[in-house]
Amino acid sequence: VQLQASGGGLVEPGGSLPLSCQASIDNSNITVLGWYRQAPGTQREWVAGVTTGVGERYADSVKGRFTITRDAGKSMVYLQMGSLKAEDSAAYLCYAAVKHDSGGRLYTKIYWGQGTQVTVSS
Question: With the C-alpha atoms ordered 60, 38, 21, 112, is the resulting torsion angle positive or negative?
Fold first, then answer.
């Protein structure tokens, strides 16, 4: 399973930036698609996720500013970031929770895409 993220860049405070992530597998096996972020010297922080049959969830730090959407037909997830702040600067990593069936044994594995850098600065 491969995840390809794109859309990072430099944006001024208060601005907006869209991210997207494409998963290489059929959407029917994906239970969660979402985003984490990690700034230098900090721990990885969960940002938002879309769970099949449940919906979207957001970290308190981005609620009301970020919107996550999932295109089931294309196995893609998008993160529209708005009202950006300097503290939003980080490498953003998309992830997918994928269900597997190994001879009747069901399990879920997490896959990661490469990070895409977001820098919020004037």
Answer: negative
Q: Which amino acid is at 89?
A: S
CA–CA separation, 66 and 58 (whole Å)? 8
* DSSP assignments along 20-75, one per residue: EEEESS-GGGEEEEEEEEE-TTS--EEEEEEETTTEEEE-TTTTTTEEEEEEGGGT
Q: What is the pLDDT of residues 67-109, one digit of tens each?
A: 999 997 889 999 999 999 999 999 999 999 999 999 999 999 9
CA angle 62-93-61, nearest 5°?
15
Collapsing DSSP to helix, strand or coil, 122 comes out as: coil
Q: What gap in Å lies between CA 30 and CA 114, rounded to an integer?
A: 18
User: What are 64's strand-pairing partners?
Assistant: none
Give the separation between CA 34 and CA 119, rounded to whole angstroms.
Answer: 19
